[in-house]
Amino acid sequence: MVMKMYKEEKHGLFDYLKLRKEYNTLLNKYETLLSNTKEKCFEVIYNKINDDQSIVRLKKENKMLRQQVKTLKEIVKEEHDGRNNSKNARSKSSTRNKSRSRTKSK
After folding, report:
1. Residue 18 and residue 26: Cα distance in Å, rounded?
2. Nearest-angstrom CA–CA distance, 87 and 81
3. Greatest alpha-carbon span in the chain
4. Distance from first CA to last CA of the chain, Å, rounded?
5. Helix (H/G/I), strand (E/B), else coil: 93
6. Type and span of the H or E element at 51
7. What is the DSSP letter of 50?
8. Cα 54 to Cα 17: distance, rounded to the nearest angstrom
9. What is the pLDDT of residues 96-106, one digit of tens each?
10. In angstroms, rounded to a whole number, what is the distance separating the alpha carbons of residues 8 and 49?
């Protein structure tokens, strides 16, 4: 009976070492796969960012949008200047009328 317990303990230790080795192997494989996945994802994203066609398309679109902004700013400036000129003309004519009315009433 003592011999039987000794064999079971030895067998249990053997199973533990076998399971521990398998666990470490699987852990190593998992870390390797995780590392490879991260590298592949980085490469895919990097390639998408550096895609020449998309860069050229985005540059053209950016240039077009900058030109639109420039023309719209000019339009707004012209409208603003036109309003200021008409206000100045109105204010000058109204001050002339006021000064004329003052001289007539005296």
Report:
1. 12
2. 10
3. 139
4. 139
5. helix
6. none
7. T
8. 55
9. 555 555 555 54
10. 61
